[in-house]
Automatic annotation (TrEMBL):
Signal peptide: none annotated. Keywords: Actin-binding, Cytoplasm, Cytoskeleton. The lineage of its organism: Eukaryota, Viridiplantae, Streptophyta, Embryophyta, Tracheophyta. It is found in: Cytoplasm, Cytoskeleton. PROSITE patterns: PROFILIN. The keyword NAD does not apply. Belongs to the profilin family. Its main location: cytoplasm. SUPFAM superfamilies: Profilin (actin-binding protein). GO terms for molecular function: actin monomer binding. This is Profilin. It holds the Pfam family Profilin. It comes from Macleaya cordata.
Amino acid sequence: MSWQTYVDEHLLCDIDGQHLTAAAIMGHDGSVWAQSTSFPQFKPEEINSIINDFNEPGSLAPTGLHLGGTKYMVIQGEPGAVIRGKKGSGGITVKKTGMALIFGIYDEPMTPGQCNMVVERLGDYLIEQGM
């Protein structure tokens, strides 16, 4: 299965009539493996900050998580495994696997829990596959 298929069929799947507004899968080096057309144009330093927070949990909390110029307030996650952010009625979930970062961005009426479930379920599956 191609990485784009994971984005299109798994991350952008329909959950109770809702779906993510944007999604992507990237390597730990910041290279994009696949992304939705709606995924924001990001800066390399934004991805570097996210990767750094996985290595040093809590480093994003004071400044927020920035992606494509949008600032998300960092909320509870799982240190070294999941970063969650909130902005207004939407937010972001980033799951780290052995080789990749899985990004999901949502807006209401999708809930944070629905976003977390979609992103983390794919991430857990990829971890089981050695990815």
